[in-house]
Amino acid sequence: VVSYGEGMASIRTSSNLVESTIADLVEVAPVLCFLMVNFQPSTDTLDVATLLQHHELTLDRLFARNGQRATIVIPRILHGIVPARQQPEATTASRWINSTSGKESLVSVRHAVDYVYYIDGGSRIPSSQQNNIGTRLDNDPTQAPLPMTRDDVDDSAENDDLAAILQAIQSSNSSRPAAPGPRSIAIDDSVPNAQQETINQEVEPASHSKF
Prior knowledge:
Layout: E1 3-5, E2 8-12, E3 17-21, E4 25-28, H1 31-35, H2 48-63, H3 74-78, E5 93-97, E6 104-108, H4 109-120, H5 156-172, E7 185-188
Antiparallel strand pairs: 1-2, 2-3, 4-7, 5-6
Region (Disordered): 128-155, 169-211
């Protein structure tokens, strides 16, 4: 979500901007933004309820829940959920907006998956990976910082807007369950090709298995 006003939100997908009402947004775990950045489900064959079930299965495979074996292998995580041709490469990087600072950064699929698996999932980090896991989901050591813009100098008003967006989405969806996961983000369930790279939620280590 990159802007908000009068009950409408502008959502940045991998290809363009999509306008949506807050009522048409649901919450999902942030790592799904990166894993499903190329996923283009059809509303003719996949409804919202089924899509959310797929989201839950994806998280089960990351956290060894509900009989699933934990894995960080992307094709295994997405097997039977996202067609092979729409699965991202580990090096695929997407822009992420930090809801606290308003800063944008590039985050690779590999870092997002590893961060959630090791930090949120509480798995032991191999010594070879110690320097590859950032302090936050949006702190990917493999990506160069984005150039600072004029908006970065004083973005306090923008930060207030981001907080208002998240609060409005949560209030609008208070009557329906959110998708499972330790950190929630907004996607547009009314636009089949809206990719989930537009989430504005800072992720920090969780004390339990949440995304």
